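Before a colleague's protein record goes any further, I have to sign it off. What it holds is a sequence and that sequence's fold in token form. Would you go through it and say whether the fold makes sense for this chain? The record follows directly below this note.
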Amino acid sequence: MLLVKLVLVATVCALALAARRRMAHAAPRTLVRVEASALVAVLAVTAWLSVTRPPRDANATLPFAPPTSGAAITVGGRADATGRARTVALRGCGDGCFYAPVAWKTGANLLTVRATAQGWGGGKETLRVMWPARPDTGQLARTVTAMRAVKNFTLHEQVASDTAGAAIAPTRLELSGDRFVDSEPYARGKATQTSRFTDAEGHTVLALGYPGERLALELTLDEQDRVVRETLVAPNHLIRRSFTYPEAGE
């Protein structure tokens, strides 16, 4: 399209130059009319090209992530060398962003992703996607309230940034509910995305997503809305936590 514009402009310029050269010998009325007509044609074609969309590749990289529509759920994991490979057609949509329409079945869906990047170990990760998503901001608020009411508990925390390395022993910490919750992204009882489901053991599980911070969390809750297991996936870390609470009366 740019080439068409250049050809038309060059033609008009040639006509204008010819008219100027003949002005000294005779009135160039014919050339002037042709020049004016060509100029109008250039303006018309330019306007048409401006409002006409160029052909697009359906598989081309998107400039940014498309907005979510309907229910959404955030899942995350760290790639390692285990798992069974599956092929997923993806379109890029920015740094660390990929997009692909998927028809999820009702219930548990296993999505296996193979990640590769220059300078990184890469590998495979199988993610559990529970569908349909069931947003529940009320459950998150109740969990934060229940956790803040805990005077003390034992936390076992395992942090890893390289899943291909040796297993890291968990760290034991004695904490109060307030201190723990204040360090969490859901400290205010809010999350950009929430989805609640029940696992195979009958526990309530709350999936949280913070796309702006690129965080994905999964909280497994007990009957008192307290967290008993937590998995947090961040761009550079995978954190697994387990919670042990004192028996009643202790």
User: Anything to note?
Assistant: Residues 78-85 have pLDDT under 50 and may be disordered. The chain has four helices and eleven strands. Residues 137-244 form a domain with the outer membrane lipoprotein receptor (LolB), chain A fold (CATH 2.50.20.10). The CA atoms of residues 133 and 195 lie 5 Å apart.
